[in-house]
């Protein structure tokens, strides 16, 4: 993507985004929870979130809601990301930006849980 | 934390936990005064005098599932070791203001880091909150609020495409403040 240097360019981007959004109706199909307490941030949660955004954009996937959860009480596993899809919530621990990209591709978009990294299910 | 933009994110997260609806982030860099000042002001629930006295104690936390809170105590240590300091004003029901200053040229002053990513992280996860960001570098100013961005991007503001666009836009503006590439 070209660098956005002005408000005008940002406005143009909105039009592109609108066409993707039209396909989506009602509640998002997938929810991604990311833990952003002090420990999460120090462990790299912000970079994980940015990787998720980037991967979602690359794959033109907008049917998703990203929710911030504060500390989920799993400090030792931070950064923690949870994916809620088809009624099941799956927690992943020690997520790196690279892992986050794979979780987006397999689980968020295609519904395939990446079992090796799962720390809990709800 | 490796960079101050992560501390800023941590403090904003505190504000969000305190139910803030409006958050102001104010950064001033001044080479003449050799000063780096960060101010985060919110309209959250605020703290009473007793809690305010204990905020720098690592064994103080408002979280039910934790016994320690290290965000502010470590930041205080960091600022003080760079000839700076941290000041918190708060009133129950009115909100909280956190001010942190550093001597800009001090060798241990951490880099400001990726502010654009911090802002976009908040925007992505809390689109309902109004965040006002003002950044001044040697009297040159850039400022923008979530409200402004919402007017420009309307309902698309939470899409990854637009969020990444905003991050790029902010990065360019901050680069400009520091005199371009």
From TrEMBL, chain A:
Protein's UniProt name: (2Fe-2S) ferredoxin domain-containing protein
Originating species: Caldisericum exile (strain DSM 21853 / NBRC 104410 / AZM16c01)
TrEMBL record, chain B:
Catalytic activity entry: ATP + protein L-histidine = ADP + protein N-phospho-L-histidine
Domain of life: Bacteria
Domain Histidine kinase: 1-106
Keyword Glycoprotein: no
Keyword line: Kinase, Transferase
Enzyme nomenclature, EC number: 2.7.13.3
UniProt keyword Ribosomal protein present: no
Molecular function terms from GO: protein histidine kinase activity
Enzyme class: transferase
InterPro entries, per the entry: HATPase_C_sf, HATPase_dom, His_kinase_dom, Sig_transdc_His_kin-like_C
Protein name (database record): histidine kinase
Native species: Caldisericum exile (strain DSM 21853 / NBRC 104410 / AZM16c01)
């Amino acid at each position: 993507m070209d660098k956005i240097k002005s408000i005008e360019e940002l406005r143009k981007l909105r039009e592109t985004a609108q066409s993707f959004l039209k396909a989506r109706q009602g509640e998002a199909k997938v929810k991604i929870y990311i833990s952003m307490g002090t420990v999460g941030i120090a462990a790299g949660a912000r970079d994980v979130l940015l990787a998720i955004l980037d991967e979602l954009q690359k794959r033109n996937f907008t049917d998703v809601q990203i929710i911030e959860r504060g500390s989920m009480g799993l400090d030792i596993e931070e950064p923690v990301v949870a994916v809620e899809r088809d009624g099941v919530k799956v927690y992943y621990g020690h997520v790196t930006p690279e892992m986050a990209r794979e979780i987006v591709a397999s689980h968020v978009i295609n519904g395939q849980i990446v079992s090796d990294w799962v720390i809990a299910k709800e | 934390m490796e960079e101050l933009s992560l501390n800023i994110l941590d403090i904003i997260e505190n504000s969000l936990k305190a139910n803030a609806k409006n958050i102001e982030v104010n950064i001033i860099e001044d080479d003449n005064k050799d000063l780096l000042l960060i101010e985060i002001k919110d309209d959250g629930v605020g703290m009473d005098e007793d809690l305010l006295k204990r905020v720098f104690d690592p064994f103080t936390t408002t979280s039910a599932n934790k016994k320690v809170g290290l965000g502010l105590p470590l930041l205080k240590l960091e600022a003080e070791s760079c000839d700076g300091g941290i000041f918190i004003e708060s009133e129950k029901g009115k909100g909280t203001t956190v001010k942190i200053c550093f001597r800009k040229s001090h060798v241990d002053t951490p880099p400001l880091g990726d502010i654009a990513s911090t802002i976009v992280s908040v925007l992505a996860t809390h689109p309902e909150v109004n965040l006002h960001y003002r950044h001044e570098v040697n009297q040159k100013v850039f400022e923008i609020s979530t409200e402004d961005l919402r007017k420009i991007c309307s309902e698309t503001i939470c899409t990854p495409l637009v969020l990444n666009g905003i991050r790029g836009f902010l990065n360019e503006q901050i680069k400009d403040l520091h005199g371009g590439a």
